[in-house]
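re the bet — no i am not wrong, look at it urself. input seq straight from the record:
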Amino acid sequence: MTDQDPFEDNAAACFGEAEGGEIIDCVVDGVFTAGPSGTVIGLLMGAFLVGSLYIAGDGDIVVPAVVSILVGSAMVPLLPAQMVSMAYALVVVGIASAMMVVARRYVLRGGF
């Protein structure tokens, strides 16, 4: 018989050795290792946000682009480290939408 810690090399090791707020990290880490990554979830959230605001804004994509950039930027310092990529993906969707607005307004139409 060995004198090992019962939590060593076990899935419950994170919970057994965690103190206070580290338990949340154990739960969140387990969720994202089992399912889709934070980046994929962020892209889906960004697409849903831009799409719904685009429909509500009668086809104007300026407001969804700005809102997604602002919301994603505000989420970066608020989220745990495992989910920061989700906020960055939201910012990327907003920047891509803003680049589409600029391209449509100034390049494709040719007017200033």
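see?? Residues 37-108 form one domain. told u. also The two ends are 80 Å apart (CA to CA). so pay up
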